[in-house]
Amino acid sequence: MIDFTDKVVLITGGGSGLGRAAALSIAKQGAKLVLVDMNKASLEETKNEVLQASPEAAIELFEANVTNEEEVKNYVQFTVDTFGKIDGFFNNAGIEGKQNLTENYGSDEFEKVISVNLNGVFYGMKHVLKVMKEQGSGSIVNTASVGGIRGVGNQSGYAASKHGVVGLTRNSGVEYGEFGISINAIAPGAIMTPMVEGSLKQIGGDDWEAVGKEFVSVNPMKRFGKPEEVGNLVAFLLSDSSRFINASVINIDGGQSYKY
């Protein structure tokens, strides 16, 4: 059993998708939660779902833009001021961006995706690590992607940002292991989240569901992953049960990355 009793977990991108799924999983194990997102309404929806599933959960919300380092500092300080520490950090906020060939990929779009997916992850690690180093303990899980370990096509900004997340994860895991901090990344494949649905709609329009079926046909498990499957993995990686896993990237893609 994973036990988060008296543990404090901070989650960015907590308003939907993988952030919401992780919040639901971790709250069931007794954690105190701080959820961060730009969208207040989405945060409230997550909070309501968490409290329906775990009525005794302690949960706080914080609106912030992860591309703004000052706002990142503020959500970290809010967590410490509210609960006194940060035991776990799911550094998850991200966007996909528009799809296009590299030669046609907009420079502004590239910078936007890098700003959210890479700079935002870096800022979060930078300021949470200061807290965890002083504590002498902690666990961080960054959201990378299968697009961070191989090419995905038509997603230059996304692939570049997620490869960067993998690099940051491995480098920081090496740096901070001696301080009792584990730092890992997850590499989800096709998980049916609002972001993935939006991607399919970019490609297929009204026929996006048919595109989705074709997309997962190459997956050995022949289906989309469920957000809760990722949430459960994140809970394990943030728990005391996984302390010797460090500087690693864990695929959760149904075997997609290894199919010839």
Automatic annotation (TrEMBL):
InterPro entries: KR_dom, NAD(P)-bd_dom_sf, SDR_fam. GO terms for biological process: bile acid metabolic process. Pfam families: adh_short_C2. One of its GO terms (molecular function) is oxidoreductase activity. Residues 7-189 form the Ketoreductase domain. Keywords: NAD, Oxidoreductase. It comes from the Bacteria. Belongs to the short-chain dehydrogenases/reductases (SDR) family. This is NAD(P)-dependent dehydrogenase (Short-subunit alcohol dehydrogenase family).
